[in-house]
## 1
Amino acid sequence: MATDIAVTSEPRTSDCWDPETDNRLVCIDVHDETHDVKSFTLASPQGKRISFEAGQYFLFEPEIDAEENGRCYSISSSPLRTNAITVTVKRVAGGKVSNWLHDNLKPGMELPASGPMGKFNRPKAGKYLMLSGGSGITPVMAMVRELADKAEPVDVFFLHAGRSPLDLLFREELSVLARRMKGLRLLFLPEVLTGDPSWPGLNGRISKALLSLVVPDIAARNILCCGPAPFMAAARAISAELGVPPERYLEESFDAAVIEDLPAPSEGQAVVATYKVQFAKQQKVLEVSAEQTVLACAKKMGVRLPSSCANGICGTCKSKLVSGAVDMKHEGGIRQREIDAGFFLPCCSRPLSDLVIDR
Ligand SMILES: Cc1cc2nc3c(=O)[nH]c(=O)nc-3n(C[C@H](O)[C@H](O)[C@H](O)COP(=O)(O)OP(=O)(O)OC[C@H]3O[C@@H](n4cnc5c(N)ncnc54)[C@H](O)[C@@H]3O)c2cc1C
Ligand code: FES
């Protein structure tokens, strides 16, 4: 018998989160993952569906001490669950936002948030090696959860490194997933055995010997890596040594201190100008090349400067420019009125003259 009922699985546009106009999320759940990591689940206050790709992040801007503070957090939940996103946050010693979230964000509270953003996306075909250190597990966890939800055949080697067995994230959930996903193999690698001296597996740091032993076909895999800067530097170097082509090695940095060294100018090449950059409060003066961002040089030389995205998005590094001029290419992390008031973002600014910065 014919019916008049039109069935559609596509939501109406008004039911979907619009990254251009929607800018608040409401917390609907908080739970502990480890002694210093919590997961926060957030939804649109209007119940809109949030579309994103595994590997992307949101920018949260809680008001703390009457100041807006932008920090990025990767989504750890599966993109196939669109009614709410989960972010998983580690407390950072002395850190403003991570500790504020742990101590204050409760179900029912709203938060200024924008996203999703980011290009750390999984190539859609092939075998994977997912390498994560500490809280860097979050974007790759979203990828594994997505693969689990899709229930398609996979070939994933998932290595998660942490400080100690007590710091390893999502251990139980990953073990449950590996029981039903035949192509998912796991290796948890604590650096030290504090808290669990009878840990049955390997411990230590990732090395060429370890990776060539546990993933002998590493050169044929897509590598997806996220973790602290030294962990990623080691993963990058080992992958190259073991024959992974650069285009199959993808990484996400949570740490703006990941700095590329500029090559020295070769003969015949114009010498790039350098400028004196003074950090007034810390009484430090650096030589910064016109090709380098102020943040990259400051981090390298041990100047203390808060930062998060390193891409001019979050505003974490916003600083007052007392004198001088910069070439700033930001992505919305600073407002025109702040620029007019003399502020700039060192992560996406190159010097055009000597600078004095109020830091
Ligand atoms: C794309 C992206 C995704 C991310 N995803 C995650 C995630 O999934 N989970 C997660 O836990 N984190 C994630 N992060 C990191 C996160 O954005 C924050 O950087 C982190 O939570 C620390 O923020 P905070 O405000 O607590 O620390 P901050 O206040 O920014 O401080 C960081 C460090 O700098 C020091 N410091 C702060 N201010 C100063 C100053 N003026 N002078 C000297 N030192 C100072 C602090 O003591 C602390 O050690 C991500 C970052 C990026 C860029
Ligand atoms: S670190 Fe995000 S804007 Fe500079």
Note: Residues 274-357 form a domain with the Ubiquitin-like (UB roll) fold (CATH 3.10.20.30).
## 2
Amino acid sequence: MMKNIGVIGAGSWGTALSKVLANNGHKVVVWSIVKEEVEMLQKNREHLDKLPGVKLPESISFTTDIKEAIEGMELIILAVPSVFTRSTSKTMAPFVKEGQIVVCVAKGIEENTLKPLAEIVAEEIPGVKAAVMCGPSHAEEVGIGLPTTVVAGAKERAVAEKIQDIFMNEVFRVYTSPDVLGMELGGSLKNVIALAAGMADGLGCGDNTKAALITRGIAEISRLAIKMGANSETLSGLTGIGDLIVTCESKHSRNRKAGMLMGQGLTMDEATKEVKMVVEGIYSAKAALALGRKYDVELPIIEEVNKVLFENKKAKDAVTDLMVRDKRSESSSLEWN
Ligand SMILES: NC(=O)c1ccc[n+]([C@@H]2O[C@H](COP(=O)([O-])OP(=O)(O)OC[C@H]3O[C@@H](n4cnc5c(N)ncnc54)[C@H](O)[C@@H]3O)[C@@H](O)[C@H]2O)c1
């Protein structure tokens, strides 16, 4: 059945998800704060900068009036980059009705509060039902209909299932989960490991190194997330290891790309300028380190990434320091009899 859906944010991800929704027969209103972006989308029915080549159906309309993308909407998708989640939630708040669902699809942890994004949405929009949706899903591939799986997470089962019903189709499979915190931590912390994977690529390391970073990376993310209250199964699922694999391997990952440039010798500022997009892992790296300290969890890869980003440490030295750490067993929970 046709539903009215609002999409807040017209970057790569907001645009790709709008197309999924329109293909499912829904009427979609997309809002952007950037007037020129809205005009470009109206004129070309294509996001020429962020998702070139992906034509958008007529059932999608574009606006700079945020009220039009909120009032009367069955579902509101919040797709702005994580650094704008709080400011955009504030702008949305006066128009969101009690009980309306806002699905946050950004990935990040707020640097100064260390809060995950659904919590920020709930804090800024009184009465909202905040949910999340993430998983291994690059906009470039979703935009051209390549088979993709994600997870919809919400405190209430009915909310997660509503998101699932609205988004699901034969190329976009949606699972549900009650573990919103685990999903959010997996989704945001993997960006930090992706920077490390990129650095390894830039240094000319091999597949062995990449596999090590992915495996030890998820071990690190899991230690922290479980201590914070997440479920371990979430970390071995699509929004944990799944999203980590895609971000560390994909040519579409801006975090991996920025890391690669740093591995080749560029500074953080030079690398982010070259990537020309928000590199969320840089913000999440600081937040992850602070969370590790707060919850007293060892995060060796994340610590080294921070040193490369903020203390001018050479990526090559960071790799060596990870390799020569104290000897230990692979898992502290495995014991000899
Ligand atoms: N791109 C992907 O493949 C993908 C996939 C899954 C999740 N995500 C997540 O979705 C979020 C958005 O990613 P993206 O790739 O669409 O980013 P993007 O860089 O393409 O988004 C930029 C867009 O943000 C909006 N914007 C710019 N300044 C703003 C402001 N001050 N306030 C509010 N909105 C502003 C504009 O519409 C702009 O086009 C990120 O958290 C990302 O991790 C992205």
Note: The radius of gyration is 20 Å.
